Amino acid sequence: MEAEESGGDTDKTRIATHWYWAIASVTQFGWAVSSYRKGYSGDHRLMPVKAFGVASLFLGASATASIAFLKASGIHKVEDLDVGASIRTGLGIRRRTGDK
Q1: pTM for the whole structure
Q2: Which residues span the membrane (predicted)?
């Protein structure tokens, strides 16, 4: 079963990538907070660009934090959730050929 899920390579060392996602999230969040606290300096016409950049950093930090949480929890696809099958049937999506 384990060889089938990992693609047949059971001898391969698996790296816990959730730490990379967590570090990326903390970095983005720290950069967003420092940019927000620094305020705007420069040409007033570019202020919307900086506001968009700071908002993108906050959004990216939350996205990478959620990916890190999912990877650390061992959730890699919808079927890994307890409610994965009911999500598929609720959306009206047919079962995959590998699902039994």
Answers
A1: 0.58
A2: 19-37, 49-70
Packed helices 18-38 and 47-73: angle between N→C axes, nearest 10 degrees: 160
DSSP letters of 38-63? Answer: H---S-GGGHHHHHHHHHHHHHHHHH
CB-neighbour burial class of residue 84 (10 A; exposed 0-12, middle 13-18, buried 19+):
middle
Burial 17-40, CB ≥16 within 10 A → b, else e: ebeebbebbeebbebbeebeeeee
Q: 25-73: per-residue pLDDT in tens?
A: 899 999 989 988 887 777 888 888 888 999 999 999 998 888 888 878 7
Please write the tens of the pLDDT for every residue from 43-54: 888 888 888 999
- Find all residues with CB under 8 Å of 17, minimum gap 6, and list them: 71
CA angle at 75 for the pair 14 and 68, rounded to the nearest 5°? 75
Contact indicator for 61, 28 with CB cutoff of 8 Å: yes
